[in-house]
Design goal:
Number of helices: 4
Membrane topology: Multi-pass membrane protein
Largest sheet: 5 strands, antiparallel
Subcellular location: Cell junction, Tight junction; Cell membrane
CATH topology of the domain at 4-27 and 75-184: Butyryl-CoA Dehydrogenase, subunit A, domain 3
Structural class: alpha+beta
Strand content: 5-15%
Distance between the termini: 63 Å
Order of helices and strands: HEEEEHHEH
Family: Belongs to the claudin family.
CATH class of the domain at 4-27 and 75-184: Mainly Alpha
Pfam families: PMP22_Claudin (PF00822)
Keywords: Cell junction, Cell membrane, Membrane, Tight junction, Transmembrane, Transmembrane helix
Radius of gyration: 29 Å
């Protein structure tokens, strides 16, 4: 029962982490900057993500523009995109594999060993998915921090961490932790000893022994 609860907890955490990775990938707030001109009316917030850039005016109006061409993007941004998409696809595979190995599911009930291996394999896939997202978000955050502290970067174009990065870090951590719980949820095999051989009982002597 304890291993089943740990398995369920690991799957829920990994699944929530996978959903968070999808949300982080789709959000445009990977980095953000605020700019105010001479008049407060001209103040605006700038956001840049993996797929588009957005500008929000002080009036609340938001304008977004999708990046025109894939080949015009920086190679680091393309690599970040690829890692996040790979993380999402791996998480999708991990969901199906882990569900097959869950104890509460009816699949593969006749072979519990294979069922436990499927759960562990699903956990490993979730861990790889979380690591891919963690590498992508950390790499992107490192680039944002380096550009911010670069003295040659104009003050009006210095970006800071956006909310999508924090969501991505939290989601990647959930996926890794949930996958680890799935890998540890299988009970250890107990050492089996051969059954002891029974010896026939000596017939109890009712009479006295004679020489």
């Amino acid at each position: 029962m304890a291993s089943g609860g740990l398995q369920l907890l690991g799957f829920v955490m990994a699944f929530l982490g996978w959903i968070g990775i999808i949300i982080s990938t789709a959000m445009p707030q990977w980095k953000m900057a605020s700019y105010a001109g001479d008049n407060i009316v001209t103040a605006q917030a700038l956001y840049e993500g993996l797929w588009m850039s957005c500008a929000m005016q002080s009036t609340g109006q938001i304008q977004c523009k999708v990046y025109d061409s894939l080949f015009k993007l920086e190679s680091s941004l393309q690599a970040t995109r690829a890692l996040m998409v790979a993380s999402i696809l791996l998480g999708l595979v991990g969901v199906f594999v882990a569900v097959t190995g869950m104890k509460c599911m009816k699949c593969m009930e006749d072979d519990q060993v294979k069922k436990m291996r499927m759960a562990v394999f699903g956990g490993v896939i979730f861990i790889i998915s979380g690591l891919a997202a963690l590498v992508a978000t950390s790499w992107y955050g490192n680039r944002v921090a380096r550009a911010f502290y670069d003295p040659f970067t104009p003050v009006n174009t210095r970006f800071e961490f956006g909310s999508a990065l924090f969501i991505g870090w939290a989601a990647a951590s959930l996926a890794i932790l949930g996958g680890s719980f799935l890998c540890c949820s299988c009970p250890r095999r107990e050492t089996s000893y051969p059954p002891t051989r029974g010896y026939p009982k000596n017939a109890s002597s009712t009479g006295k022994d004679y020489v």
